[in-house]
Amino acid sequence: MPPILQRLQQATKMMSRRKVLLLVLGCSTVSLLIHQGAQLSWYPKLFPLSCPPLRDTPPRPKHMTVAFLKTHKTAGTTVQNILFRFAERHNLTVALPHPSCEHQFCYPRNFSAHFVHPATRPPHVLASHLRFDRAELQRLMPPGTVYVTILREPAAMFESLFSYYNQYCPAFRRVPNASLEAFLRAPEAYYRAGEHFAMFAHNTLAYDLGGDNERSPRDDAAYLAGLIRQVEEVFSLVMIAEYFDESLVLLRWLVMLARGPRAVQTGYPAFFGAEPLICVFQADKPMPQRGPET
Ligand SMILES: Nc1ncnc2c1ncn2[C@@H]1O[C@H](COP(=O)(O)OS(=O)(=O)O)[C@@H](OP(=O)(O)O)[C@H]1O
C-alpha cells in the first residue's frame, strides 16, 4: 500500500478513537450531571419537574411544644425517643410521670394533670403513655401546643399486644399455651370487660384515644364516627406506623426537629431536609388554650 494511503488509514483510526473517547467522556459528563443535579440549585431549571421548586414556599413557623399521645404497640417508642432528643437539643422541659404513676401517666386511668411531676410543669414536650383526656391535657400544656399521635394497622397491633401483655392482661393469661389462634377462635371465652388491663384485649386504640372500647361499631356506628371526628379535631398529625418514614417527614414539617445526620451526609432530599409532598394534617387549625393552673 502506498505510504500516503497507510497514513490516511492511520488518521481515520485515530479519528474514530478520538470520537469514541469524546463520546464516552460526553456520556459520563451527562450521567454525572443527572446524578448530582438533584442536589444543585440549577437542577429544576434544566430538568423541570411537575412539582414547583420548594424554596419558593415561604418558611412556616414550626412548633416547639408537642403533646404526643403514645398509643400502645404502634412504634410510639421510636417517636418518643425522637421527641426526647428534640427536647434535649433545645433545652425544653419534658413532662415526666409522678413517681406514684410509675413510668406512664397512671395508665390505664384517664389522664389528669396531677399525674405529671410538679418539677416538670409546665412542659414543652409530653410523650409517655397515657389515656387521652383533651381537657386535662389542654390545662397542662402551654398555648400553641401541637397534638400528635400514631396509629397502626389493628391486626398487627393486636398480635404485638397479645405477645407483649400475655402475662399482664388476664384475658390473655387464660388462653391455653398462650395461643393467639385459640384466643381469636373464641375471644369472648377469655375476655371480661372491666378487668385491670382488659383494654389490651379489646379496642386498645379506642381506649388510648379516650374512647369507650366496649362500644362496637356494629351496634353503634354513630359513636365511632363521633370519636373519629374528635380525633381529627384535636390532632394536627396522626402518624401511621406502616408509613413511618412518611409520617416522620410530616412530623419534621410540623415540629422543629433537627436535620438528621444521615440526611446531611447523603444529601437525601426527600427526608428530613425537604418539605413533604403529602400534607394530610391540618396545620392551620386554632390552637387550644391553656386553662387556669391547679
Ligand atoms: N419504625 C418502626 N416502624 C414500624 N414498626 C415499628 C417501628 N419501630 C418499632 N416498631 C414496632 O412497634 C412495636 C412497638 O411499639 P411501641 O414502641 O409503641 O411499644 S410500647 O407500647 O411502647 O411497648 C413493635 O411491634 P412488634 O414487633 O410487632 O411487637 C415494633 O417492632
From TrEMBL:
One of its GO terms (biological process) is glycolipid biosynthetic process. Keywords: Glycoprotein, Golgi apparatus, Membrane, Signal-anchor, Transferase, Transmembrane, Transmembrane helix. It is found in: Golgi apparatus membrane. GO terms for molecular function: galactosylceramide sulfotransferase activity. Signal peptide: none annotated. It is a single-pass type II membrane protein. It holds the Pfam family Gal-3-0_sulfotr. GO terms for cellular component: Golgi membrane. It comes from the Eukaryota. Belongs to the galactose-3-O-sulfotransferase family. This is Galactose-3-O-sulfotransferase 3. It comes from Carlito syrichta.
